[in-house]
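note to self — DONT lose this again. spent like an hour looking for the file last time. sequence + predicted structure for the chain T wanted, 713 res
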Amino acid sequence: MPAHTPDQIAALVFLDIAVIVVVARLMGMLFRRLRQPAVVGEIIAGIALGPSLLGTLPGDLPVHLFPLDVRPSLRIVAQLGLIIFMFIVGLELDVALIRGKERIAATISLVSVVLPFAMGVGLAVMLHHNHGVVAGKKVEFLPFALFIGASMSVTAFPVLARILTERGMYRTEIGALTLACAAVDDILAWSMLAVVLAVVAATGALGLPLILGESIAFVAVMFVVVRPQLRRLVTAYDKAGRLTPNILAVVLVGFLLCSYLTDRIGIHSIFGAFVFGVVMPRENSRALFHEILEKLEQVSVLLLLPVFFIATGLNVDVRGLGGSGVVELLAVLAVACTGKFVGASTAARAMGIRSRKAAAIGVLMNTRGLTELVILNIGLAVGVLDKELFTILVLMAIFTTVITEPLLRLVYPDKMLARDIAEAERAALGLVDAYRVLAMVPATDAGETDLLAARVVDAGVALLGNERPSELVLTRFDRPVKKVEVGSGLSGELMAIAASFGASQDLVHRAAGLGAKAVMRSQFSEEPARDLLAQSLAVEADAVLVPVDAADPAAVRTAERLLADVDCAVVLVAGGAPPRDASVVVVLTGPGDDGMAALAQAVRLSRPTGAPLELLDVGDRREGRRMSGLVERLTAAGVSASVRAASTDAWGVPAGSLLVAGLEGRRRGRGLTETLAAVTAAHSGPLLLVRSAGDDRGESLYALLDQTAPAQG
């Protein structure tokens, strides 16, 4: 193939990047549907565009699509993407994750690194015989063995963090501990790799001590001199109120310059970017970090890292393995999986963690992903790995990442996870044995939404009645932040949760002003109904309060799911003014448990204000006699109650009154949307629709009336 001109090379680079991005996005979406991290699909896309798949077709397509004189330009683009990614990894590697877990995390991480490293060195004895010569040069056993050991010891912190956030495990004790272990593991792995590269690059008797000394001096200067100066970025950000071009320029120049320095030292450019990310100031810098990540992650993930994957894929040729290569692949997989899993899980058991949770830690710590690819590409670049061994180790990295999700669900199933999340939430909220209403409040971004949130809080406080002790748990679900497939996205997601929590504190103060104890929790959710169900179990709710509108299909779907599955009373709030403004509480009773549950909630609403109850008589003769008995029972319990005959127009309920209605009509074949439409057509004011906690035959109402009955003199 004739050589290309510089302009032709530039045009081909642009075409190649476009092809790479399209294929990477498609494969990423496919693998997300398979419940795998998108990065796995993107890695496989890079391999598919190389000789392993595209090369099997006639015409030597990889060479035509990625000509040899174009590949150096692609490698530069890939290197830039890699440096940005390593800066992001360093930025998100917060040592605060380890705080309070230092001893356990350090023990688990140390064992989970030492055991696979030792097994990897033993494996190197077998591999060195077949792979000890690279490009005609003999590779000494020491750097080869050290590199194989390091590649067996890696845990991919970014991919692991994404798995934990997607399953909600970061809220559990086991998730937080695994994140801490992975953070320590990352520090150990990168330090170990720096030593290996120093051994590879060292020449002469003083070569290794000189490289190690310069590396230690670089890290010391970064922490002692550079880090205090970087605090000025936080001050400048706070003053400007946003990420200015000057602030971003300092960050870009900083990690690029550090990358150059570590390359000159001899330990590869990625270490400079990583260390610069680590030394970025952590105090009051969440908002700054979020904007930096927002600027860099999209370019890195969408444009630059896919080029790194194709640079990897062009060096992977699965067809060339042969029988001996397959045997070596099985040996590598056995050492990688056994060493990491046994090391982490055994250490966790020794630290007093139960067997299933210890196994979950072992599975998670076996995740390698992109971090492993970074190390392997370095090994290929410095001449420690030949292309056949590089292919074997890349396949190991993919396999150990792919099996993490299914193995995790096997050893740590969703049922166990839900229970642990519930325990974590009870501990975080400091819940005590009390009558508890769980209220779902909408986001408070616009004035109209603020009114609805306030109405829900007022309704929740009112439903507590005079119960003592009692508690209102306010929960808010926001749309998930845009996921970053390769980076963990963890710091941005947790920061956004904290921000939404802070924005909702006025609702807690509102509840306190009404005399109720309230706690607030916030989380991102793709399925609010599912997560609200889990929370109702976690907080042991006696009632769940949800805003609903017939014109909002998403709200109706959430309510329908709750009505079908939740084990406690469900109260749907709709209509006009907040319930506390209602002058009279009117109850529409029905023939089943829902009507009695509605009456029980109406009693709670009326007790604090002394508002009279009016039982609406809709003309059912069978219900007439029961209503008379209920009025007598309510009166004996000190509740002012009477019967109102329904008129033909809107039941004759005053517009300003609160209507509390049972949901039996829904059970007679009418959907919730139709039920809402029918009831709101008859009553335009505030409305609560109630479904009972189950087949209690009014027992909850009678127990409540026994509490309110006046003392007998």
